[in-house]
Design a protein that fits this description.
It contains eight helices and seven strands; from the N terminus they run E-H-E-H-E-H-E-H-E-H-E-H-H-H-E. The protein is α/β, with parallel strands linked by helices and 236 residues long. The structure holds NADP nicotinamide-adenine-dinucleotide phosphate.
Length: 236
């Protein structure tokens, strides 16, 4: 009989998801991680060592999610930061951009939890990923709405899936690959703007976000909640 816990992270091959994977691996937990790129997956698995296994997965595709979880052991937790999308204004952006955003970020995580359900232990913890624009939009209304919808989904799922706990992590701007892969002329002005908007005057680190996600995974009194790890952004 073993007490080893296994956590699934869809979007665990870079950024916040990978930072959480490192934290869990260091404390002796097992991991099942996924992302779309097999190269990124191979690099992440090499860095994490033997505690981790993984598969490529597309979070918007139910068949791919079923393949990802097939033969998974009983899971103590699920984290779903995987999403790729574009945002736009209401006046100038086509409705297709907003629909694609919901498809990628909202319905992707909805489908991921559904596909994981047969594998989640009764004492498992699910952490969804939204974003602090839910509470303080910055000019992309559908992005604000999508994040708010995910926070509502966490509350609704917490009620229905109890005793499985479900919470949402709502980050502010975070210095992950999502930003590092963008050109300097896009990233640096965005970081400067963020320094003025939040109280701690800097983007978060991926380790700070992983720490917040870990709290939601571990704290057995947290369910139906949204944790804003945003440097005070939503205070102003
Ligand atoms: N960083 C920020 O400033 C910030 C702020 C607020 C909210 N967020 C939220 O945080 C999440 C992104 O996390 P991050 O900042 O750590 O970004 P990241 O470093 O780009 O990591 C994203 C991870 O998700 C995977 N992924 C992306 N699209 C996927 C898809 N369709 N199917 C499966 N896997 C996919 C990526 O791997 P592949 O590319 O190989 O698929 C990667 O492992 C998003 O939900 C974003 O809205 C981020």
């Amino acid at each position: 009989m073993t007490n080893t816990r296994t956590y699934a992270i869809i979007g665990g091959t870079s950024g916040i998801g990978l930072a959480l994977a490192h934290t869990l691996a260091k404390r002796g937990d097992r991991l099942l991680i996924g992302g779309r790129s097999s190269d990124n997956l191979a690099k992440a698995l090499a860095a994490l060592g033997p505690a981790a296994s993984g598969r490529t997965v597309e979070i918007t595709d139910r068949t791919s999610l079923d393949r990802f979880f097939a033969e998974a052991p009983a899971l103590s937790g699920l984290f779903t930061p995987a999403a790729s999308y574009q945002t736009g204004t209401f006046r100038d952006g086509g409705i297709e951009t907003s629909e694609a955003l919901f498809e990628a970020k909202f319905w992707g995580q909805y489908r991921a939890v559904h596909a994981a359900l047969p594998y989640l232990r009764d004492d498992a913890s699910v952490v969804l990923m939204s974003g602090a624009a839910s509470a303080r939009p910055v000019g992309a209304p559908a992005y604000a709405a999508c994040n708010a919808a995910l926070e509502g989904l966490a509350r609704g799922l917490a009620l229905e899936l109890n005793p499985i706990r479900v919470n949402c992590l709502s980050p502010g701007t975070t210095d992950s690959e999502l930003w590092r892969n963008r050109p300097d002329h896009v990233r640096e002005p965005a970081y400067d703007y963020w320094r003025k908007l939040c109280l701690v005057q800097r983007p978060a680190t991926v380790e700070e976000q992983a720490h917040a996600a870990l709290f939601l995974l571990d704290n057995t009194n947290m369910t139906g909640n949204t944790l804003f790890c945003d440097g005070g952004y939503t205070m102003r």
